[in-house]
Each structure stands twice: as structure tokens, then as C-alpha cells.
Write a structure and sequence with these properties.
Elements (H helix, E strand, L loop, with lengths): L3 H6 L2 E7 L6 H10 L14 H8 L5 H12 L5 H17 L2 E8 L2 H4 L5 H18 L4 E9 L4 H14 L11 E3 L11 H9 L6 E4 L5 H11 L3 E4 L7 H9 L3 E4 L1 H6 L11 H6 L4 E3 L4 H4 L3 H12 L3 H13 L5 H7 L1
Parallel strand pairs: 1-2, 2-3, 3-4, 5-6, 6-7, 7-8
Helix pairs in contact: 2-3, 5-7, 8-9
Bound molecules: hypoxanthine (HPA) and zinc ion (ZN).
Length: 338
């Protein structure tokens, strides 16, 4: 498609990428070796980087992916591991003209195996500091995610530790999110956690919903949790009233097209409601989610959407402006990004 040059040159905002989802099979194996971590010996997928990569082509669902995703965490130990992972992502994203990146990470899944929150954030911050020198047009923000497969009290414990760090109020953390398994995990389960976050003064709240779960989860996340953004939100299209509300309130959905196809949320890219969201003026951004697992960074996601939908330059202008407007950065920074 002749728009691919245009799409490459288009300045981008990425709002939905999990830093732990950027670990390639090669890096996973080399860190396992360096850190003397043994990988599962009862799963032939872990025979080699190539067999692991091949297994990623056969994901059947979000939960099937999450099983491998959390095994990948086990090889990340020291500050330098998190620094290298984050710097490599920022370098690749910048090469695809990402000028503003909001990066998710999952502290509970590190803390639970003895890697402290301070270790993780120290590595990520070191990468951000180097990026400020090496990638001068790039702004970087970090968003911790509560993990839904763990008990709610663990989520409260995480929020308490994060609040005690002071990092929500010194520019280290830009907001608070929630991810992991979705079906059966109704937003009401996390009402007390989000209330505590709001009471403590955290302004930017988001949550993964509508990836596998129904539109009602999206609607209830907005009303019960008070989130200002929805990660994925794909299935919002099943509720016309919700669509009207998303448009009217300028609530941004952080869509992840290749992720939805690889995890079998949709059969084909063409089945995503991209055209419908555009026509209904629902604000959305296009993101990579877990690029090392799903086989595409942000530009590959933009190009896959273009191939499926044949959008016009004006459509991309609308997407790009919406992504800037929906970013968690200052009005001044938004003007620079325009
Ligand atoms: N959905 C839920 N949890 C996740 C995802 C996702 O797309 N990526 C990493 N953790
Ligand atoms: Zn995600």
C-alpha cells in the first residue's frame, strides 16, 4: 500500500505496551543463561528460542498467552536487566517514530518472586534517562498494572507500596492500570482498589477491558472504577449506547490489533471495528501490547490496520490527533506532539 511510507513517517504515541511483553525469545534464553534460571523442562516449547517463537504462533486465548508471558518474567532479575529491556524497546519504538510512550509493567509478578519494585523501576528509569539523551524527541511515562489473576488484597498491597514510594507524585509513575485474565473478573471486584487510588490523589486511571470480556465490563469499568481510558475496549462495539458515551466523553480506547488476531479475539484483522469507531468518533490509539509475543511493534500494527481497512490520510490524521489528545502528558507536550 502506498500509505506505508506515510505511516512510517507519522509521529506516533504508544499507550499500550507491556515492557515484559517486549522480551524476545533470544533475550529470554540469554538472560536465563546469564541469571542461571532454568526454564520449564516439561514443555518442548522451551527447547530453543526458535521452538518458543513457533509456540507463540499458536496461542489460543489471552490465558494461553499469559501462561508463557509470566514464565518470561522469571529471567528478569537485576536493575540492568530491566534497563536493557526498556532501552531496547525505546530504541526500536523511536525508530518507528514513537515520540510519546506510556509503558505498562506488572510489579506484583516481580515482587512475588523476590525482585523488588525498586529494582524494576530503577532499571526502567535508567533506560528513560539514557533515552532522554539518545532519543531527544521522545517522552516516556510508566504505568504499573494490578494483576487480576492475583487476590484483590495483593492488589491493595501493591497500591500501598506504590503510594509509599511517592512515585505517583514525583513524575515517576503517570497513572495506574490493571491487566491479566479478564473473563469472570468483573470491575466491581476492584472497586475498593480504584477508590483507594482515587482517594490518594491518582488522577490517571485505566484498566484492560473488552479484550475478551463483554461491553458491560467496559461500561462498568467506567462507572464503577472511574477510569478515564480503556485498554483494548474492542467489544465496546456491541453496545450502541456505550459507543455514544465513549464518543461524547472523549474516552480513549488503546486498541491492539495484532494482539487481538494472535490471541483469537477476532478471526481476521478485518473483523475489528476500526471503521465503526472512526465513524462514531470514538477516540482510539493503535498499539503493540506485547510485541515480542505477537510479532509486531507499533508500525506493523499501523500497517496491518491499513492493509485491512484501506484508510484515508484524513482517517490517520484523526487517529493521530486523538492519540495525542488522549495522552497522559502536559498541554505543552501535546502541542509539541501535534
Ligand atoms: N491483556 C491482559 N493482560 C495482559 C495483556 C493483555 O493484552 N498483555 C499483558 N498482560
Ligand atoms: Zn495489554
Amino acid at each position: 500500500d502506498k500509505l506505508h511510507g506515510f505511516l512510517h513517517a507519522l509521529p506516533k504515541c504508544e499507550h499500550h505496551v507491556h515492557i515484559e511483553g517486549t522480551i524476545s525469545p533470544e533475550l529470554l534464553f540469554s538472560l536465563a543463561s546469564k541469571n542461571e534460571i532454568s526454564l520449564p523442562s516439561d514443555d518442548p516449547a522451551f527447547d530453543s528460542p526458535a521452538t518458543l517463537l513457533a509456540r507463540y504462533q499458536n496461542f489460543t486465548s489471552l490465558d494461553d498467552f499469559l501462561h508463557y508471558y509470566f514464565i518470561g518474567f522469571s529471567v528478569l532479575l537485576g536493575v540492568s536487566d530491566f534497563e536493557a529491556l526498556t532501552y531496547d524497546y525505546l530504541s526500536l519504538a523511536y525508530s518507528q517514530k514513537v515520540y510519546h510512550a506510556e509503558i505498562f509493567f506488572d510489579p506484583q509478578a516481580h515482587i512475588s518472586r523476590g525482585v523488588t519494585y525498586q529494582t524494576v523501576i530503577a532499571g526502567m528509569n535508567a533506560a528513560k534517562k539514557r533515552a532522554a539523551v539518545d532519543f531527544p524527541k521522545l517522552s516516556v511515562e510508566f504505568i504499573p498494572c494490578l494483576l487480576r489473576h492475583l487476590p484483590v488484597p495483593s492488589g491493595h498491597g501493591l497500591l500501598t507500596e506504590l503510594l509509599e514510594s511517592g512515585h505517583f507524585f514525583d513524575g515517576t509513575l503517570v497513572g495506574f492500570g490493571m491487566s491479566s485474565t479478564e473473563l469472570g473478573m468483573h470491575p466491581s471486584l476492584y472497586k475498593s482498589v480504584y477508590e483507594a487510588a482515587q482517594s490518594a490523589g491518582i488522577v490517571n486511571l485505566t484498566a484492560h477491558y473488552g479484550e475478551e470480556g463483554p461491553a458491560d465490563y467496559v461500561k462498568d469499568a467506567l462507572s464503577i472504577l472511574g477510569v478515564g481510558r480503556i485498554d483494548h475496549g474492542r467489544r465496546s462495539i456491541e453496545d450502541a449506547e456505550l459507543i455514544a458515551h465513549l464518543a461524547e466523553s472523549n474516552t480513549m480506547l488503546t486498541l491492539c490489533p495484532i494482539s487481538n488476531v494472535v490471541l483469537k479475539g477476532v478471526d481476521r484483522m478485518h473483523d475489528l471495528p476500526i471503521r465503526e469507531f472512526l465513524d462514531a468518533n470514538v477516540r482510539f490509539s493503535i498499539n503493540s501490547d506485547d510485541p515480542a509475543y505477537f510479532g509486531g511493534y507499533i508500525l506493523e500494527n499501523y500497517c496491518a490496520v491499513q492493509e485491512a481497512f484501506g484508510l484515508a490520510v484524513e482517517d490517520w490524521g484523526k487517529i493521530a490527533r486523538g492519540a495525542i489528545a488522549g495522552s497522559w502528558c502536559s498541554p505543552l507536550r501535546k502541542e509539541q506532539l501535534l
